[in-house]
Amino acid sequence: MDLTFCGAAGNVTGSCYHLDYGDARLVVDCGLFQERAHANRNWDPWPFDPAAVQTVLLTHAHIDHIGRLPLLVRSGFAGRILCTRASADLVQLLLLDSAHIQEEDARFKTKRHRREGRDLPPSEPLYTTADAWAAIDRLERVEYHQQVRVAPGVTAVWNDAGHMLGSAHLALTSERDGQTRRIVFSGDVGVCDRVILRDPEPFTQAAVVVCESTYGDREHQNVEFAIETLKEVVNSTIDRGGNVVIPSFAVGRTQTLLYYLRKLMERGDIQPVTTFVDSPMAVEATQILRRHRECFDDEAQALVDAGRDPVGFEPLHFAASTEASKAINRVRGCIIIAASGMCTNGRIKHHLYHNLERTDSAVLFVGYQASHTLGRQIIEGAEDVRIFNERRRVRARIVQIEGLSGHADRPGLLAWLGALQAAPEQVYLTHGEPDAAASFAETIRTAKGWNVAVPAYGDRVTV
Fold it and tell me: Which run of H or of E encompasses 337?
């Protein structure tokens, strides 16, 4: 079998793997490149023939793992797209949003070119809403732990990854010529003992492992320290009359924040604070979360059984409309949770525009900030940043906490690999920036003596 690394190799977005079994061709994940430095790859020709692919298998619904599916279908893919039930609901939500962003970006570029007097044809979106629906129509839902035949002699199994609602580790097992081979894709590995979702369920057997390495070079803050930081930032900022602006991924991180804010308010650790979730996607994602109790851990299940909402409290407001979003700018002394999590687009940019220059406000980062994103610029200490073609001084308090990450850190990744009952023949590290992947590779070699490689974008190996 040949394995080609078509994304998330040497960076953390664009996850995509092509597997060639000879008479069967599969793709695992098909994500969008979100970092500015690699965004042009979204427009590059596919390194494989989309029309020859029979099945796409998804680990989870984050856009860096699913965001090129509409483009794949438009390029000729006509097979099945398999994922868990919760993931399927989220895939529809996120792909339609992504298509809308692609269309809006194209319209904006066309208007800008005309304003600048440039005689250019209208800009084309990477894909359209119709393309997104064409991909959504190919979704097929699977259950955790269910063995699914995905090609002649090849079966797939999804185990819970604990990373986000519906997320999974994926194992592909082939039985050919009397030999059984299993390749495991970690997807994004979640964190044990976190709220709402169950812990990751690693596989115990694999000949080859493709493992993420996002935080392979560090350890997270203790979650209790992260919650104490959240409490301190909210209390001190509200006491000053400022706003706490939290860039957050609409799916997953926002719901985790709501869970912790509910607990802090119920315990009296923070006063009831007017909290806005300013993201139509987050509103829908929260409703999807409530529908998929099969993904909940015991604590969240117990809350639901007692008639309580794990992610609801007073005074919480969901701003779905543009008018409701604009009205938030007139409020002082509130918490504003808005997407996107890396500040690359969406309503968070408006709230940063209105709050970054305020010394009484705070911007609290609770997730990974990829290279070359606005969020990374801010946390690295930029004195001013460009928002809506204007320079805005960074005068607000800037705080970053990593203890709420949905990605396992170095010890967590080692523990996930440690569930294997025998050493795999090869481990490939992807979905990490070069320093993080290289550091984790050395950690694995030292701790376990395993064969580890860090593939580059476009590398093809036989496994």
Answer: strand 335-338
Q: What percent of the chain has pLDDT over 90?
A: 86
Tokens 């795999």 belong to residue = 424
The pLDDT of residue 407 is 93
Q: How far apart are CA 376 and CA 221, in angstroms?
A: 19
Let me know: does 95 contact 70? Beta carbons within 8 Å. yes
Q: Quote the CA–CA distance of 251 and 62 in Å, as a whole number.
A: 8
Look-up of token digits 């064409």: 134
Return all residues near 352 (Cβ < 8 A) that are at least 6 apart: 245, 247, 343, 363, 374, 378, 387, 392
Fold of 223-400: Rossmann fold (3.40.50)
DSSP letter at 452 equals E
Higher pLDDT pick, 123 / 218: 218
Closest CA to 135 of 85, 61, 77: 77
User: What are the structural domain ranges in the chain?
Assistant: 2-218+406-462, 223-400
Q: Residue with structure tokens 């984790």?
A: 440
Q: Provide DSSP, 15-36.
A: -EEEEE-SS-EEEEEEPPP-SG
Tokens 């204007």 -> residue: 390
Rounded CA separation 141/34 (Å): 26
Residue 303 has what pLDDT? Answer: 95
Sorted by sequence, the CB contacts under 8 Å of residue 220 that are 6+ apart come out as 191, 226, 402, 403, 405, 409, 412
This prediction has a pTM of 0.90
Q: What are 250-304's pLDDT values in tens digits?
A: 999 999 999 999 999 999 999 999 999 999 999 999 999 999 999 999 999 999 9
Instruction: Categorize the per-residue pLDDT at 441 as very low, low, confident or very high, splitting at 50, 70 and 90.
Output: very high
Contact call for residues 273 and 234 (beta carbons, < 8 A): yes
Which of 3.40.190.10, 3.30.830.10, 3.60.15.10, 3.40.50.300 is the CATH number of 2-218+406-462? 3.60.15.10
Contacts 24+ apart (CB under 8 A), 144-152: 144/84, 144/168, 144/201, 148/82, 150/24, 150/26, 150/54, 150/55, 150/57, 150/80, 150/82, 151/21, 151/23, 151/24, 151/26, 151/54, 151/55, 152/23, 152/24
CA distances to 195, 301, 305, 402 from 310, in Å? 9, 9, 11, 22
- pLDDT tens across 339-367, in order? 988 898 889 999 999 999 999 999 999 98
Nearest CA among 28, 1, 12 for reference residue 440: 12
Residue 47 has pLDDT above 80, yes or no: yes
**Distance between CA atoms of 344 and 340, rounded to whole angstroms?**
6
Q: Does 223-400 match 2-218+406-462 at the fold level?
A: no
